[in-house]
Write a structure and sequence with these properties.
Elements (H helix, E strand, L loop, with lengths): L1 E5 L5 E5 L6 E5 L3 E4 L3 E6 L4 H9 L6 E6 L5 E5 L4 E7 H4 L2 E3 L4 E4 L3 E7 L3 H5 L6 E7 L2 E7 L2 E6 L4 E4 L4 E5 L3 E6 L3 H6 L5 E6 L2 E6 L3 H11 L4
Antiparallel strand pairs: 1-2, 2-7, 3-6, 3-10, 4-7, 5-6, 8-13, 9-12, 9-16, 10-13, 11-12, 14-19, 15-18, 16-19, 17-18
């Protein structure tokens, strides 16, 4: 299959299948448009338990599979917020650990499952949930980026501290944990919350410039209650 990213503010990835039988899958509701020659099938993709696990990771229990019935059939998957779409050949990365909501769509050789942080405190206090997404296998996967992407290659022992909502994903070699903000005034007056995500190399870290949950919270505070 071939693909291209279309649009800039609210981008989509448009996939053109080279042959009948090629397919892509996405969470329910992820498809934006498609041509004739596409067959749709919705299932739990791996069974009920995996479907339930995806629900805890912020994705749909059911996944929609789109299969070409003829060459040159096309389909597009659009982002849900303003930002970017990041294509990743997952077979070349050795797998990624991503925050919930980062997955947009993938080829059928890509496995999407849930994983737990090594330290309970990292998930319980991290603001993005105890469960993360483990993306493995072979093929292309497309990730949603809120705002602009920032990719950093951490050296062994190198540390970066990030607001949890600005983390998209990271290599499996990267250590993920949560540390508390030091100082009473910083906690209550600093405006950054009580916890920061601490990522330690070696490995690649994918960040995003917008924390959409924080943005949505600001909008919600402006909506009249009556």
């Amino acid at each position: 299959m071939r693909y291209r990213i279309v649009g800039s503010t609210m981008p989509a990835v448009e996939v053109v299948f080279d042959a009948a039988g090629e397919s892509m899958y996405t969470q329910s509701g992820g498809m934006a448009w498609m041509s004739d020659g596409i067959r749709m099938d919705t299932n739990t993709t791996g069974g009920i338990l995996k479907g339930v696990g995806r629900m805890f990771a912020g994705e749909s229990m059911f996944m929609a599979h789109y299969t070409a019935t003829r060459p040159e059939a096309s389909i597009a998957f659009a982002s849900t917020v303003a930002g970017e779409i990041l294509p990743v050949n997952i077979g070349q990365t050795g797998g990624l650990i991503c925050q919930k909501g980062a997955f947009l769509c993938a080829e059928p050789g890509v496995n999407l499952s849930v994983t737990f942080t090594k330290k309970f405190s990292a998930g319980f206090f991290g603001g993005e949930g105890f469960i993360l997404q483990d993306i493995s296998g072979n093929g292309m996967v497309f990730l949603e980026i809120d705002g602009d992407k920032v990719i950093k290659d951490l050296a062994p022992g190198e540390v970066i501290k990030v607001d949890t909502g600005n983390v998209v994903g990271f290599d499996r070699n990267v250590t993920y944990e949560i540390e508390t903000v030091k100082g009473i005034k910083n906690i209550f007056l600093g405006g950054e919350g009580l916890f920061l995500t601490k990522l330690t190399g070696p490995g690649k870290v994918i960040l995003q410039t917008q924390n959409f949950n924080e943005f949505a919270g600001r909008i919600a505070r402006m909506i009249p209650s009556k």
